[in-house]
Amino acid sequence: MKMQPTDTFLEERRSEIVRIVNEQGKVSTKELSTLLGSSVVTIRNDINHLAELGVIVKTHGGALSPSKVFNFEVPAAAKSLRNRKEKEAIGKLAASLIKDGDVIMIDAGSTTLEVAKHIKAQDVTVITNDLQIAYYLTENTNVKTIVAGGTCAPDVFTLVGIQTCRFIESLHADKLFLGCDAIDFSFGITNRTLEEVGVKQAMLQSSEQIIAVADASKQDTRVFAKVCDLETLDVLITDAISEHGKAIAQECGLEVLVLGS
Question: Is domain 78-258 classified as CATH 3.40.640.10?
Fold first, then answer.
């Protein structure tokens, strides 16, 4: 439906661009100009700015949703803006599963960061490859934080590489809180960048219980590189799940914890 031209504020217009691009998958600059009642030059400047943040992907003549680009790594700053309330609630529920004295691994990501923020248990040891998570946990006196070495991936504060994998493989954890770029209930868990897959798989092998944390927007989709089959997981914590997804999860023996249920 065509919108009447408006004098919306800068942030409101840019938020609307992100919404439209994510809903439609791909939108031209001219279409956005017509929908929002702004000049093509203004929309082009908005697209450039939003692409730098990683919220959308700039294309010739328009923009793409990052979800349509299988190997596009979304910067941490952009990830943190998406589905904030859902991620916070998922993180809080996940953290409630941590017991006093647990040794846990926390995978890199914006939802796993929320897990770290809500740890209330005492005498917990956290192993992570996420520098933001490690930085946050320095303020939690109940947590001993161990950071894996390796190479820091640009814009995402994530440590990756053979050194990271070897370090993680030398340890053992009670629980892993696994972040997910995409969940296809038939295919499994996939990730946008190949560099992170090895680290995630090392964490899977070094942990007794695998707890995946992902909001519903990650479901029924598939991206670049496979991490594991659904059967590898023990628990999935999310804000919503389709009946189809729930049925497959049951067949796999996967416990699904849904917010508010």
Answer: no
